């Protein structure tokens, strides 16, 4: 949604909608904390925005007296390091002829699903923010995947929510992280028979945030390094399963990777517990 531009310096506004993604080969642990470069590549399925989504509106206006961000009706601090990182990246690439770049920015974002509860709200949130800001500041992508790299520096998994369907986040090999980007394996309509059922057993925020949990695992878990060694082979198997619509392999490897992830959490000190009794009961039913 573009706002009107005129000699009266009217505000400029963009609204974007993005969906969270659910990983089938998970990202857990960073090789570079500052640039958010992962220990391993990962694969996910992006949800349908008609089911789960983040809606973000960004506005530049002469009537706004300070930068601000609102999430689910509550004002958040603009001092968040990752938020500032994304803003700096986008603003540095703004169209130099844009007349509204000196205006203050207002960000208003809402999720239609529980926030910080394990449903990748930070992924859809930062993906949505980057999409909206790059449109607002009229940024042109210099190489394929650049915008996903920007989103990655807000929240690692956000790079995958920049794309729909089946998505891989390549770990990359460059020290500057420019090749640590997301790319689509297959579009959403590649496998129309595949449906994902989301069961919310607890809508409150996780006791251990993903960022904190990853740091603890990297520092203390021996199992994590073993998992990282196996991931490249699993990435190849999962990619082929998706392309061939091989549900048996897809499902088996998804659960294997999930079990390994929770084993790493149990091997972390202090122990991280993301599964509760309701989760365990559901797993037994499945």
Number of strands: 11
Query: Quaternary status of these chains?
Result: single chain
Ends apart, CA distance between termini = 43 Å
Strand content range: 15-25%
Shape: globular
Could you give the order of the helices and strands? EEEEEEEEHEHHHEEHHHH
Rg calculated over all Cα atoms: 19 Å
Q: How many strands, what sense, and barrel or not for the largest sheet?
A: 5 strands, mixed
Low-pLDDT residue spans: 1-8
Fraction in helix: 25-40%
**Distinct helical segment count:** 8
Structural class: alpha+beta
Q: Kindly state the mean pLDDT as a whole number?
A: 92
Strand numbers in spatial order across the main sheet: 1-6-9-7-8
Walk me through what this model shows.
- With 286 residues, the chain is an alpha+beta fold.
- Helices cover 36% and strands 19% of the residues.
- It has eight helices and eleven strands.
- The strands form three sheets. It has a five-stranded mixed sheet with strand order 1-6-9-7-8, with helices on one face. Strands 2-5-10-11 form a four-stranded antiparallel sheet. Strands 3-4 form a two-stranded antiparallel ribbon.
- Helix 2 (121-136) packs across helix 3 (146-152) and helix 6 (222-243) runs antiparallel to helix 7.
- Mean pLDDT is 92; it is low at 1-8.
């Amino acid at each position: 949604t573009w706002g009107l531009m005129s000699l009266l310096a009217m505000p400029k506004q963009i609204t974007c909608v993005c969906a969270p993604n659910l990983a089938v080969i998970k990202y857990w642990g960073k090789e570079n904390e500052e640039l958010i470069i992962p220990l391993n590549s990962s694969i996910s399925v992006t949800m349908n925005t008609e089911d789960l989504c983040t809606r973000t509106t960004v506005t530049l206006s002469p009537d706004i007296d300070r930068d601000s961000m609102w999430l689910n009706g509550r004002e958040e601090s603009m001092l968040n390091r990752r938020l500032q990182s994304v803003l700096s990246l986008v603003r540095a690439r703004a169209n130099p002829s844009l007349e509204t770049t000196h205006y203050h920015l207002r960000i208003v974002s809402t999720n239609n699903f529980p926030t910080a509860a394990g449903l990748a709200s930070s992924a859809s949130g930062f993906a949505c923010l980057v999409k909206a800001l790059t449109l607002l500041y009229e940024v042109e992508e210099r190489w394929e995947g650049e915008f996903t790299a920007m989103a990655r520096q807000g929240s690692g998994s956000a790079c995958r929510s920049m794309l729909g369907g089946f998505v891989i986040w390549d770990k990359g090999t460059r020290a500057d992280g420019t090749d640590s980007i997301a790319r689509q394996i297959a579009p959403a309509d590649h496998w129309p028979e595949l449906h994902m059922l989301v069961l919310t057993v607890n809508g409150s925020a996780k006791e251990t945030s993903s960022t904190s949990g990853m740091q603890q695992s990297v520092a203390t878990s021996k199992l994590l390094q073993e998992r990282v060694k196996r991931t490249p082979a699993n990435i190849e198997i999962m990619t082929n399963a998706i392309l061939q619509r091989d549900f048996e392999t897809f499902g088996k490897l998804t659960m294997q990777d999930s079990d390994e992830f929770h084993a790493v959490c149990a091997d972390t000190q202090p122990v991280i517990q993301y599964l509760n009794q309701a989760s365990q009961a559901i797993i037994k039913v499945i």
